[in-house]
Design goal:
The chain is mainly β. The chain has a single domain, classed as Beta Barrel (Thrombin, subunit H). Helices cover 13% and strands 35% of the residues. The chain contains 4 helices and 22 strands. The chain has helices spanning 25-45, 163-168, 198-202, 315-325, and strands at 7-8, 16-20, 47-48, 56-59, 71-73, 90-96, 102-110, 117-120, 136-142, 154-162, 176-180, 183-188, 191-196, 206-209, 217-221, 240-244, 246-252, 259-263, 275-281, 286-292, 295-297, 307-311. The protein has a 6-stranded antiparallel barrel. A hairpin with a 7-residue loop joins strand 1 (7-8) and strand 2.
């Protein structure tokens, strides 16, 4: 700019944890069948994740100081989206929560060495309501709509997160990258057919770290929850887009020292994990991931959410991305 044991990585990657999700092909096949069985009933019955969805927030006029040189990875353009100007990279991540019920957040395919990485909020990977460990039966469905899996279903093999989020719940590190197996579709009962690598099917957004605060970002997600006044402007059934400026924030109710905000009317439930893309162009449907929704806030007190909240993408989070980018997955079909 383009200026479920948890394993801690050694030496230069000491700040990274790799979280096994479905480490074997057999386990991954079982996860895929769980979601695809009975006409994808579990996908259809899932509800938006409602953990850490809203915080008190104040907009600041101060700048964010990067902790190192800027870094960016260019995007990989995908196929034409059925919805004009909307990315095929966005979708829903599904998992089983602490209540043993199926839930979903938003996720985004990003560019990586093996075309197999999904970005989402850290607490859409790690179960912050439990003593430790990941959320169960984790999958990604790009372009999801009403039980349909237009580009296949991608089972998570392992998630990669920052040690400080896993260990002390530092929300400046509430970001996760998940390596998924190649996609599958259910061609007949109990038969899984290979659908190919994620980014080769839908493209992959670029990723940028240690950047100045962007004048504007495009936020893509599946908001579904209520406003503070009880109204429900979104259903969570379709991908939504909002465009707004970014700024530094001070938040209450969330342990974070330097979160950033974006003008966005999205409600929290469902939009956790929404991508914040800079330099997004509708022609290519690509940009650079430079933020991820971890919560929302009503900063002007009118009982309507007006701000998405994200960790600042610094050098520490770049380390997390680089580790995820180097992990191979393969096929389960």
């Amino acid at each position: 700019m383009l200026g479920s044991a948890i394993v801690t990585e050694p030496a230069q990657a000491a700040s990274v944890v790799v979280v096994p999700l479905a480490p074997t092909v057999t386990t991954a096949q079982q996860v895929a069948r769980f979601w695809l069985a009975d006409g994808a009933a579990n996908l259809k019955n899932a509800t938006p994740y409602a953990v850490r969805t809203a915080v008190g927030g104040e907009r600041l006029s101060t700048d964010i100081v990067p902790d190192g040189p800027p870094a960016s990875i260019p995007p990989l353009e995908g196929p034409t989206s059925p919805e004009e100007g909307m990315p095929t990279t966005s979708g829903k991540v599904f998992f089983i929560g602490s209540d043993l019920q199926p839930h979903w957040c938003t996720g985004t395919a990003v560019q990586s060495k093996y075309r197999n990485v999904v970005a989402t909020a850290g607490h859409c990977l790690l179960d912050i309501e439990a003593p430790g460990g990941p959320l169960a039966k984790w999958v990604f469905v790009p372009g999801y709509s009403e039980g349909m899996t237009p580009f296949g279903l991608y089972v998570g093999k392992q998630g990669v997160a920052h040690y400080d989020f896993d260990d002390i719940r530092d929300y400046d590190r509430d970001l996760a990258f998940v390596n998924v197996y190649s996609g599958v579709v259910s061609s007949s009962p109990d038969v899984l057919t290979n659908a190919g690598k994620l980014a080769e099917n839908v493209g992959g957004q670029g990723v940028a770290f240690n950047q100045p605060l962007a004048p504007t970002v495009d936020v893509f997600g599946y908001p579904a929850g209520p406003e503070p006044d009880g109204s429900r402007p979104y259903t969570g059934e379709t991908l939504e887009r909002s465009t707004g400026s970014t700024f530094a924030m001070k938040v209450t109710g969330l342990p974070a020292d330097r979160p950033i905000g974006a003008d966005s009317p999205f409600t929290g439930e469902g939009s956790l994990g929404s991508s914040w893309l800079t330099h997004y162009t509708s022609d290519s449907r690509t940009g650079y991931l430079n933020g991820i929704t971890i919560s929302v806030s009503d900063t002007d007190g009118d009982n309507r959410y007006d701000t998405g909240v994200s960790p600042y993408f610094d050098g520490e989070l770049y380390t997390v991305y680089r580790r995820a980018s180097d992990l191979w997955t393969g096929s389960i079909a």
